[in-house]
Design brief:
mainly alpha, 2 domains
């Protein structure tokens, strides 16, 4: 599959489109493009999330992705989504609020999980 000329040509076309849209080719795309059979389906999902018409505009989509990246603790994704959100018009305040919401949700995830275990081991006396 890696040597299929049609898949290679499609991969090159998509890499050019990504670079035109973002001004760069993210490392994940560059690395996956070595295997067009893996890159193309992955790119299809990415395009459907970030490039197709939908309920959210591009800026909001990247702010949502930034929030998920921050909650997952992925520094590379945080940077990429923050840069893309800026590219699509996000302000410093919008980014900071997005990060604060993400941080709060991370806190509540820890509380939700840990406090339930705490309650099982140290039940409230009634």
């Amino acid at each position: 599959m890696q040597n299929d000329p049609e898949l290679k040509a499609e991969t090159e076309k998509r890499l050019r489109m990504i670079e035109e849209a973002l001004g760069k080719v993210p490392p994940t795309n560059r690395i996956l493009s070595r295997r067009p059979d893996l890159f193309i389906p992955n790119n299809d999902v990415s395009v459907s999330i970030f490039m197709k018409e939908g309920a959210f505009d591009s800026k909001t989509r990247h702010l949502l992705a930034l929030s998920a990246a921050a909650a997952n603790g992925s520094p590379y994704c945080i940077r990429a989504q923050m840069e893309d959100a800026i590219l699509f018009g996000a302000t410093e305040d919008e980014i900071l609020e997005t990060l604060q919401i993400s941080a709060y949700m991370g806190l509540t995830k820890v509380q939700s999980t840990a406090f339930r275990v705490f309650d099982e081991l140290f039940p409230e006396e009634k």
